[in-house]
Amino acid sequence: MSAEPTRVVIDCDTGVDDAMAILYGLLSPEIDVVALSTVWGNIWVETCTANTLRLLEIVGRPDIPVAEGAGKPLVGPKWRLGDGVHGADGQGNTNLPPPKLRASGETAAEQIVRLAHERPGELVLVPIGPLTNIAVALALDPEIASLYREVVLMGGNFLVPGNASRWAEANIWHDPEAAQIVFDAGWPITAVGLDVTLKCMLDQPKLERLRASGTPAGVHIDRITDYYLTRYEARRGRRECAMHDALALGIAVDRTLILNQRRCRVDVELNGTHTRGMTAADLRIWAPVDQGNANVVLEADGARFIDRWMEILSR
User: Fold this and answer.
1) Helix boundaries (H) for 59-152
2) How far apart, in whole angstroms, are the C-alpha atoms of residue 101 and residue 108?
3) Taking the domain 6-200+242-314, which CATH number applies?
């Protein structure tokens, strides 16, 4: 990890695992969260914005701007969203009171473009939801691809099955056209997908330790994860949940967490009857590396990351 904190812009669809990432970013001395933006995905964008603002209140960080973004994918109508795995409120059906903080009034895409020009070469963009806002920002100003230091996104599945469909991971599946635009933009991309996030599992005993720590962040995470754990238990038979977004943020800050990655060409299936949203990575050993557009993480030290995450949220 760098001696200086890594300065990040987080674009999120704030459900339970987003909250795990955002609180880690706000509390870690290795991370400087410059701004947050919200996008539809786990739940409606308006609810994602409220959830994000509430997290800032919980840890006393009203100084960080939150810009609300897209409420539907680039192509097609607004989705019908239900309870999903995050609850109807995106925070495990805890129905917490509305935040007192308000969004900045700037759109997410405008904020992403503005920050790129204000701090060229300095910021890491960390999208942990559907990539709609990032694609819109690129449409507004393609130059941002040369101004962000890099992009570390949570999305895709490369050697494992999908979770939103048989073949596709949820963030990519929600807006495949946006994802293809992002992969084609020409900036440095690291993709942290289901291959590693589904091996980074938070279990009930660790959540009980968080609650016992008594910290505002630990208490909040314990509160919102009960529903999330129940949904995971129904699918996987164990009361533990994946830390998808938190691991992506962790890797953005500490590359030693990556144990195996491949530079390769990644494309998103846009037309397949059964495979729409699939991330098709050319992982052939003879594939030309110079044609790659992303570094795909295939193995990560999830256990070490969880220990660090627990330490940060517990103190």
Assistant:
1) 108-118, 132-140
2) 17
3) 3.90.245.10
